[in-house]
Each structure stands twice: as structure tokens, then as C-alpha cells.
Specification:
The protein is an all-alpha fold. It has five helices and no strands. The chain is 60% helix and 0% strand.
Length: 110
């Protein structure tokens, strides 16, 4: 029997609108499948079921470490891409966000 998950609305805050909340919720759902390892799977499940808030979850040492490792790997992969490919991906992301009514002018986190 599957557990009830909170909806994306739980992640809407003053600084995070509905589109970004949906993206965050989707990312947590992907992590909950185990795609990024057991630690992040556990964290995502705890947050999605409402047992732990997102802010509290990122303060747990094991979760923070796993998130940091994933972010470092993503940054390394991003930096390894040729400049033209990074620009193409960034443009595609801006168009996708704009089409969804999101902020297409958000700066790259890298």
C-alpha cells in the first residue's frame, strides 16, 4: 500500500511560486524512486509524506551531505559540457519556464 504524498502546494512559499513548487515536488518524486541513492530516497519520502518538512530535512547531516555530493556532481558535469551546449540547454530551460508561465530570466545556478 502506498503512502499519501503531499501536493506541490505544500512547497509554495513567498519566494517559491507554483511553477517552482511543482518542479521541486517533481524532483522529490523522482528522488523517492531511489534514482539518486538510498539516502536521498529516504529524505524525499519523508518530505513527500509530510513526516519531515523540507527545511528540517536539509538540516539532517546525512541528507545535506548527499545533496551536496549530488550538487557537486551536477556542477562538474555542467562545467564539462562545451559552452555552446550549456547555452543551448539554458535557452531551452528559459523557453520551457516561459511557456509554463515561470520565470524565464532566472540566472544559472552555475
Amino acid at each position: 500500500m502506498s503512502e499519501r504524498h503531499v501536493g506541490f502546494e505544500e512547497f509554495v512559499t513567498r519566494g517559491r511560486g507554483p511553477e517552482r513548487a511543482r518542479a521541486l515536488h517533481g524532483a522529490l518524486e523522482r528522488l523517492a524512486t531511489g534514482s539518486a541513492g538510498d539516502v536521498l530516497q529516504e529524505m524525499a519520502r519523508e518530505v513527500l509524506t509530510g513526516r519531515v518538512g523540507l527545511r528540517d530535512a536539509v538540516r539532517v547531516g546525512a541528507y545535506a551531505d548527499a545533496l551536496g555530493e549530488g550538487a557537486r556532481a551536477l556542477r562538474t558535469a555542467w562545467q564539462a559540457l562545451p559552452e555552446e551546449e550549456r547555452a543551448r540547454y539554458a535557452d531551452e530551460a528559459r523557453r520551457t519556464l516561459a511557456a509554463r508561465g515561470g520565470d524565464g530570466d532566472a540566472p544559472s545556478p552555475y
